[in-house]
Amino acid sequence: MRLERADDGAPIVFQATPTMSQFMQSDAYVRLLAGPVGGGKSVACCHELVRMAQMQTPNRRGERLTRFLIVRNTADQLRSTTLKTIKDWFPPAEGFGRWAATERTLYYQFGLSDKTIVKSEWMLRALDDEADIANALSLEVTAMWANECREMLAPVFAALLKRTNRYPSPKSGGGFATRAGAICDTNMPGMETYWETQMSAPPSNWSVHVQPPAVLPLADWIDRYGEDPPEELRATTTAGVTFVVDPNADNVSNLAPSYYTDAVKTDKQDDIDVYLRCRFGRTLSGLPVYDQTFHFDKHVAKEPLQVIRSENYPLCIGLDLGRTPAAVFGQMTPRGRVQILSELTSENMGIQTFLMTKLKPHLAEKYPGVPCYVAPDPAGWQKSQVNEKCPVDYLKLAGFRIVRPPTNKTKLRIEAVDTLLARSVDGEAGFVIDPSCRTLIKGFRGGYKWSVNKRGDLTNESEPTKNQFSHIHDACQYLSIVIDGDHSGAARRAARVIQVANARGWR
Ligand SMILES: Nc1ncnc2c1ncn2[C@@H]1O[C@H](COP(=O)(O)OP(=O)(O)O)[C@@H](O)[C@H]1O
Ligand SMILES: [Mg+2]
Questions:
Q1: Which residue has the higher pLDDT, 426 or 506?
Q2: Which ligand 1 atom sits nearest the alpha carbon of residue 35?
Q3: Residue whose CA is at the smallest distance from ligand 1 atom 4
Q4: Residue 36 above 50 pLDDT?
Q5: pLDDT: is 306 or 496 the higher one?
Q6: Could you report the per-residue pLDDT of 134-150, keeping only the tens digit for each?
Q7: Is residue 441 helix, strand or coil?
Q8: Ligand nearest to the CA of 87
Q9: What is the pLDDT of residues 88-135, one digit of tens each?
Q10: Does the C-beta of 212 come closer than 6 Å to ligand 1?
Q11: pLDDT-derived band at 458, boundaries 50, 70, 90
Q12: Whether the CB of 149 sits within 6 Å of ligand 1
């Protein structure tokens, strides 16, 4: 990307990485760039503000007017980090801009080759300062930059966002803001925080862009590059785990060569996960069940997955029963990769309602003509106390082919998923999840976790905590335990053993 500057004619050249350019080009109202420390996020945001300033449609006088609110959690960080980064890249020099310290505002002004003038005010405000917050909440600005947004409280962010898209206005001699809204940059937030929720299930007018991890576990590095890493990229933690710097991660070439290796050698595993590997911070309440085997960038597809429509590759529906039925829809591909295509969750409904109002419509809409079978919770074979039918009877009545998972032991079910996660097919993950499976993915990222005892320790008796992620994960385990190995043959054999009703209408 090239930025024009008319004062001394020297162009400022900034090369956006693929993640940064998606962030910049997204037309979402709120855009969020998350990634490792040192990933160049803050610098990218400075450039994006300059770009937005130049993008503003000129008014009648040929001026491109913008006003940006730049917020950081503390005055100290604002001064020592945010302002420093801005001044580093866009020094408010004579003929280009000035820093008005008492107003904590940068005033930029420069001409473009089309003879228009860019006039942009950058107002820096700290959120630990009552007067600053009060002031910010009365501003009328074009857009805001929330620097290190994970430190910000949700209501403050929401209130500030409402101050955007208010400048310029017709009374300032032109139209409205050409590019309004917010840009946010951050290190990865903690699990189950407001920011994690926004990132995991973004509102429709938000876009979330996560940079690649700065370091990879040794085996993943070798997997990716097909060779042993050079010595200078490796580092081992105090616990003896080796990580390797990914030379293709964002901004690595602009950092000192030992920047990330020193961090690996110094930091605790939790910090390495958050600050270098772009994982959500762990909550104190429990260890993620798939902590060692699940890797977001390996197991979550970047693009939507395509269902294979063939008799030989039936759709497997893992189904958890109870009062919160949940289902995952997956398929073994011809190359032996398991792809999870979609998920369904529910709250407080019986299996019959779930079948009629959710599962059947979902199949008809998304998978017409695809043969399928269900792998239900084995508890579904138990008759209920109030009537003669067991939940599986309803599945049979609805015409489903059924495969009974051979075990309901938690450890074995989890092992089946772990095995799939660890598998490689043609050098790529043997288990991939469609990005639309938000609850499942959030669970994999840590929401599905082991329960701990009162002292916060894991014990041998630990079971996964029952929470909003456990049902979809139970469903995923039933799928994994039957889809694994010689799957389609086994499924057909099993389907023959268990008498099932006619599946016509679902094929
Ligand atoms: N495009 C670039 N060219 C040269 N140096 C860069 C570039 N982007 C970032 N840097 C430098 O890399 C370091 C980290 O960048 P920064 O934006 O602060 O990272 P983050 O906000 O992701 O932690 C800074 O010293 C910054 O000046
Ligand atoms: Mg930063």
A1: 426
A2: 22
A3: 254
A4: yes
A5: 306
A6: 999 999 999 999 999 99
A7: helix
A8: 1
A9: 999 998 788 999 999 999 999 999 999 999 999 999 999 988 888 899
A10: no
A11: low
A12: no
3-class secondary structure, 365: helix
- C-alpha 44 – ligand 1 centre gap (Å): 8
- Residues that place a CB less than 5 A from ion ligand 2: 42
326-383 pLDDT, tens digit each: 999 999 999 999 999 999 999 999 999 999 999 999 999 999 999 999 999 999 998 8
pLDDT tens string 208-266: 999 999 999 999 999 999 999 999 999 999 989 999 999 999 999 999 999 999 999 99
Q: Which ligand is nearest to the CA of 84?
A: 1
Q: DSSP per residue over 90-157, as a string? A: S---TTTEEEETTTTEEEEEEE-TTS-EEEEEEEEEETT-HHHHHHHTT---SEEEEETGGGS-HHHH
Going 373 to 377 to 382 to 385, the CA torsion angle's sign is: negative
Q: Which of 251, 259, 275 to mutate to test the pocket of ligand 1 (most atoms within 8 A of CB)?
A: 251
Structure tokens at 424: 């490689």
- Token pair of 159 as six digits: 């209130």
Q: Nearest residue CA, atom 6 of ligand 1?
A: 254
Nearest-ligand number for the alpha carbon of 20: 1
Please indicate whether residue 312, judged by its CB atom, sits closer than 6 Å to ligand 1: no
505's tokens: 């209408």
| Sequence letter at residue 63 | E
Give φ, ψ of 483 to 5 degrees.
-80, -20
Claim: this prediction has a pTM higher than 0.85:
no
pLDDT of residue 463: 87
Among 33, 43, 48, 49, which is best to mutate for testing ligand 1, by the most ligand atoms less than 8 A from CB?
Answer: 43
- Residue found under tokens 């310290």: 101
43 CB near ligand 1 (under 6 Å): yes
28, 120, 119, 25: which is closest to 69 by C-alpha?
120
Q: Give the ligand whose atoms come closest to the C-alpha of residue 23.
A: 1
> H or E segment at 267?
none
Q: Which amino acid is at 420?
A: L
Rounded to an integer, what distance in angstroms lies between the CA atom of residue 484 and that of residue 489? 11
Q: Are 237 and 271 in contact (CB under 8 A)?
A: no
Q: How far is the CA of 344 from the centre of ligand 2 (A)?
A: 37
Reference 393, options 352, 359, 343; nearest CA is 352
